[in-house]
Amino acid sequence: MNNNETFEPTIIGFTCNWCSYRAADLAGTARIKYPPNIRLIRLMCSGRLDPTFVFKALASGADGVMITGCHPGECHYIEQNYKMLRRFHLMRRTLQGFGIEPERIKLVWASAAEGAKFASETTAFIEEIRQLGPLNWGKSNGHFSGDDKPPMLEPAPETPEEVPA
Amino acid sequence: MSKTTNETPVTNKPKFAMYWADSCGGCEIAVLNIHEKILDVDANFEVVFWPVAMDAKYKDVEAMEDDSILLTLFNGAIHSEEHEHVARVLRKKSKLLVAFGSCACEGCMPALINLSSKSEFFDTVFTTATTDNPENIRPQTSVQVPEGEITLPKIYSVVRTLDQVVPVDYYMPGCPPESHQIAAVIDLVIQVLQGKAELPPQGATIGAGNSTVCDECTRKRNVKHIKKFERIQMIEPDPEICLLEQGILCSGPATRSGCEAKCPSAGSPCIGCYGPAEGVIDYGSRLMTAIASVIDSNNPEEIDAILDGIPDPAGQLYRFNMAGSLLRASKAAWKSNGG
Amino acid sequence: MTQRITIDPITRLEGHGKIEIFLDAEGNVANTYFQVPQLRGFERFCVGRQVEEVPLLTNRICGVCPEAHHMAGAKAVDAVYHVDPPRTAKMLRELLYSAFYVTDHATHFYALAGPDFVMGPDAPVAERNILGVIHKVGLEIGGKVINARKAGHTVIEMIGGRKVHPCTSIPGGLTKGITKEQQKEILELGKWAVEFGQFSLKLFNDIVLGNKEYVDLILGDIYTHRTYYMGMVDENNRINFYDGKVRVVGPDGKEFVKYAPQDYTKHIAEHVEPWTYLKFPYLKDVGWKGFTDGKDSGIYCATPLSRLNAADGMATPLAQEEYDKFYKTLGGKPVHQRLATHWARLIELLYAAERWVELASDPEIASDNFHAIPTEVPTEGVGIVEAPRGTLTHHYVTDERGVATKINLIVGTTNNYAPISMSINKAASSLIKKGTVVTEGLLNMVEMAFRAYDPCLSCATHSLPGKMPLEVTVHNANGEPVEVLKQYC
Questions:
Q1: Does ipTM surpass 0.90 in this model?
Q2: pTM of the model
Q3: What is the CATH classification number for the domain harbouring C100?
Q4: Does some domain include residue C49?
């Protein structure tokens, strides 16, 4: 069992350009501290979030993914954050089918003025993931096969092939 | 009695091989369903390895020179040590290795076992309603019988695609690939042999279209507003209108074209056997995106209620593409793999 | 000290198989093991799926006979939802199924079995295949077989939506019907199929039954077992591939049990051995007594021969004539000689073609009433059909949403796993004795014991060698190979 106290989660954050990325900026300029475990990727809109990005993050070593967008009704592109909301729900259900805790992905609505909220939600999420433990996706218990020839297919030594009738 | 030798008749025809790993034989039947065209295969190739049809053994393929087989069609996914070994051997001996059919390209339906751990897999099979197994026996890779030791190949709990084991030259999707597509590919290969055409770039998907099934489907399409997902047996769908529009979860929007949309034409939703469209690396994610776009709600509770109409998202979104997806298998399956 | 002969892999089987033959110190066969080294786990990965998808999933158990799995699955999901499909839907399903039987039995007979009889088991290897058959009896034959397959697959696609892995059966019926034009085309193809069936039986009569050597081979003891026989019958105890009850007769030919699909767990159980991934079904009421035949062993057989033995006759006139001739020639019911299965298969082909015509002539077959919407909560259901290779059972349990929670499948060839093992053992034991030199002819005769059961996958290209690729490696007591025999096409 991993020692959760020394485990440093790796979190990928997808932020939308108009609201939540600016919230992150605001947290920075206001010197509001939050842990460095999150790496932010900026999208023009949360509606750009393709579930491919989330699954790639988890399959490539992330322990959690945070998705942020404008508050409902405030999307710069009118309605696209709702599309992301629906994808988010479907993603959580799908992850559950794979045995991944749905809480490893989190959705936060944050406006450009909510730097403090951005920082506190991020901090809370990092702690939740620390408690869940590392994901270590795709690591087998054992390896597939480094050998070219499994035992039962060893070639026989050369033998005469003609058969007396 | 006639004698045999292991000398195969020497011909100048290029060599052809077809192998089945964790497959059902449907790809072999699809090849047969090119009917008279099979004579063109015979006229232009020498078949040197096709376990379902002729006797060449693994040892014979191993003894062949590297790159001596011009074209190998490999169908079936990689599920056991035996499949893996033959895949590696055929890669060495073949100039062109084609991942033929959905199993080899992305795992196909048998890759759904990737959602179970090895023990869940074996325990279920060996304790079914009619299984008489009081000692709770499970098959073993090595067993001592009174006369000696006999072996079975190890079965992995994570099914893999062909290109997760060896590099692949071309991909031909479909479960199985449609016969008219197979015939077209055979024609192309024969033309290449005769110097009349060029091979497509390596790594290409052949025998399929570049768009999605929706483009080939003849049903009428309008803007979709889904308030409820229906089970096909519970409604009488209109035969002229898009199935997804009527609430039937049709995978057409995410599935590569090439099949002539046979299933929706027959009243059954597309289930995705032709795999992802060009450029897509995770089929299920794209299907998820398409579904999310057509759900007609912005309210979280209502969205959840609508999504209750998709009771098995992992299975419904990754029906054919589990092994070739980004996540590939469940946590439990990964943990028990190799054990 | 034990010698051993390994045959690996066996081909023309759905999946892979291998045989281990152990010799005792005298050089006689001590035991044989027929191992199936493949397991895909349908009984596990269909769990958690929406139940109406399971007939689509189980299609992929076998790409040669997906129609069989689709039909068994369709009947199982009807039962799960407690819904009775309209008459048109049942007829369309049986029509698809009849066309499929013609295609499938033709493929096996001409490409696999025929060459042994047309060319002879001792014929030169290079000629013992469909090409040899064509050269001997004419190019016309190859064309007829291709046309038989084409005709069958045309009907399968019209009703089933696709040529391989049909998609139109759902709980309560089908997703589509056929038009009057399609009905006409299907009927014409059916009439051709009846002629093809008669032609095939005549071919068998002229070439096989007209040759004393072959008749002796068929009647010989090497390929004879006295087991129980299983097949599905209608209410008149005539063979029906699509619907009815399962009837089992004993080695003496008398009815042992007749059960409805939902009662199958009372009568069938599956034995497990650690050296193979496949299980061995047997009759619960008799019990598993090991690999032996006879009245006291629960081993049963499910093949065309079994079906003819288990029924009182055929439901169509031309096939009934052939049925009578069959038993008259072979000395009465039941027939225990496994090679007679090839003949029984052709009689079934003719019946399937006649049934094709019957169904396609029915005025209701093109009606619009092809689906009944289920009204009850889904729970549990069993669907049984006769697959070409044996009785096929699908059993699904679901939750109240109709999501599968438990799946049990007993597949056609699986029924025959124990009989095939016994046939291989008997053939090997009869042929390999002290001092025997293992020859190419021996390999073919062991092969013939196996091939009569038409193990699930047959491959039928015109260039089929008609010969199971076999390599026999004989090891001495130190495990060093002393002889390697290979047979090629």
A1: yes
A2: 0.90
A3: 1.10.645.10
A4: no
